[in-house]
Design brief:
The chain has 15 helices and 27 strands. With about 475 residues, it is of the alpha/beta class. Strands 1, 4, 5, 6, 8, 9, 10, 11 and 12 form a 9-stranded mixed beta sheet that branches. Strands 15, 17, 19, 21, 23, 24, 25 and 26 form an 8-stranded mixed beta sheet that branches. It has a 3-stranded parallel beta sheet with strand order 14-16-18, with no helix packed on it. α3 crosses α8.
Length: about 475
């Protein structure tokens, strides 16, 4: 059994100091460098000050690819990993990189996200730092909602310009799973005197056609873009990725670089592009950055670690279950780069007479006399006697229901909170606060790939059964 350690917000204050001590690099390592490169790194270390970097996290649109998980919440607020939310990943990367001023731009169903941000990062707001949500609004300057990534930033330029002592702006996505030292990203941006830098992921040919690809010259400058090319157009986007720091062997396996959808801008460049040069363009990746690359220094910055786009139900589901496996590619707890979240002060999980393997168990959960394999069980989950659960993501609950309350619900013909006794669950997502009656079988034995059973609180996406938030599944139901 694998237990998932929850983050402690009391470590916030340690992260910036840990990063600041690394700014200048090793004197021994730098002694042998050419004077020009050494000077550039010295300048970069001085100018890439995390206190002078603004973080902007794009909360995304309606989250239709993650529906129904986004039916009542914004995409960044979707629970993940047994006790976290998607937004915790980029916010924590900012904190661990020493970036203390962070805005989250949202538009849809943002109430729970705002509540989460306020309760999770309040202790991080000292010394002028903040993690703040900015929702779309109609203003005298703009009478429309956000129409794209660039338009979202444009509509709040007045807010960003009002901040003092900002040299660079890092723009991030709210639905990617990865760890990254953003300060290294900014330092590389400054060292190369880039107007814009783009996070670049090296890719093998089998995966490359699913991404927006970039072509670079011998200095790492981006000279061409192609959106999900195939055939000869794909071959034409091959580059020498040793330029970005890959070994010859790895570069031979990964001759493509994909845009990660994260960017660093010089602040004045960002303002000029959005307000003056391309005032009508609404998207960074498809419009503004390719146009800017024609006349500006737009650089690629290599990221060669674990990265997953979890914008679809299938990718989201698979990424969660992968965390429960032995030696996972991504874990939420890392002693050097933890992912922070809301402190809940819940008791440890309680397990009574169970067979549990390859699982993450959230705090405050109760599992008794059941089998649970290759699953993620969220906070405050209750699983009754005799259940058999495999390949499932249970998001848990926002509150407890006492025995007296559960009995009162059942006396009225209702279903108690959690999973009732003698249920079989396979290949399933059970959203928060769901009520699964006794003797239910949720296995999708018919192999249905897509279905909308809204009146029953059930959807099926890519063959994965989803029980929506707050749904009640009557006892004896077979799906």
């Amino acid at each position: 059994m694998k237990m998932n350690a929850m983050s402690l917000c009391s470590t916030f204050a340690k992260a910036p100091e840990a990063r600041l001590s690394r700014r200048g690099g090793s004197k021994v390592a730098r002694r042998g460098m050419p004077a020009v490169r050494r000077a550039a790194q010295t300048r970069a270390a001085a100018e890439a000050d995390p206190s002078r970097v603004l973080g902007i996290i794009l909360g995304g649109g309606a989250g239709s690819r993650l529906f129904p998980l986004t039916k009542t919440r914004s995409k960044p607020a979707v629970p993940i990993g047994g006790g976290y939310r998607l937004i915790d990943v980029p916010v924590s990367n900012c904190i661990n990189s020493g970036i203390q001023r962070v805005f989250v731009l949202t538009q849809y169903n943002s109430t729970s996200l705002n509540r989460h941000l306020n309760s999770s990062y309040r202790s991080f707001t000292g010394n002028g730092g903040f993690v703040e949500s900015l929702s779309a609004m109609v203003s005298p300057e703009s009478e429309t909602w956000f129409e794209g990534t660039a338009d979202a930033v444009r509509q709040y330029l007045w807010e960003f310009e009002a901040l003092k002592n900002i040299d660079n702006v890092i723009i991030l996505s709210g639905d990617h799973l990865y760890r990254m030292d953003y300060l290294d990203f900014v330092r590389n941006h400054v060292e190369k005197n880039a107007d814009i830098s783009v996070g670049a992921l090296p890719e093998i040919e089998e995966n490359a056609s699913g991404f927006g690809l970039m072509k670079i010259d011998g200095t790492g400058k981006i000279v061409e873009f192609a959106e999900k090319p195939k055939g000869d157009a794909l071959k034409a986007m091959q580059v020498d990725t040793t330029v970005l720091g890959l070994s010859k062997e790895e570069a031979a396996r990964k001759p493509y670089i994909a845009s990660m959808g994260i960017y660093v801008f010089k602040k004045d460049v960002l303002v000029s592009l959005l307000r003056d040069k391309f005032p009508k363009d609404t998207d960074f990746g498809g419009e503004i950055i390719p146009k800017a690359a024609a006349t500006m220094n737009v650089q690629a910055h290599l990221f060669n670690g674990y990265w997953e786009d979890i914008g679809t139900v299938k990718s989201f589901f698979n990424a969660n279950l992968a965390m429960a496996e032995e030696n996972p590619s991504f874990e939420f707890f890392d002693v050097n780069q933890p992912i922070y979240t809301r402190p809940r002060y819940l008791p440890p999980a309680r397990i009574l007479n169970c067979q549990i393997s390859e699982c993450i168990l959230g705090h405050g959960s109760l599992v008794q006399d059941s089998k649970v394999h290759h699953s993620v069980v969220g906070v405050r989950s209750v699983i009754g006697d005799g259940c058999d659960i495999k390949d499932a993501l249970l998001m848990g609950a926002d509150y407890y229901e006492s025995e007296a309350e559960a009995s009162a619900v059942e006396a009225k013909g209702g279903v108690a909170l959690g999973v009732g006794p003698n249920c079989t669950i396979r290949n399933c997502i059970i959203d928060k606060n769901a009520r699964i009656g006794a003797n239910c079988s949720i296995t999708n034995e018919a192999g249905v790939m897509e279905a909308d059973l809204e009146s029953q609180g059930i959807y099926i996406r890519s063959g994965i059964v989803i029980v929506v938030k707050g749904a009640t599944i009557p006892a004896g139901t077979v799906i």
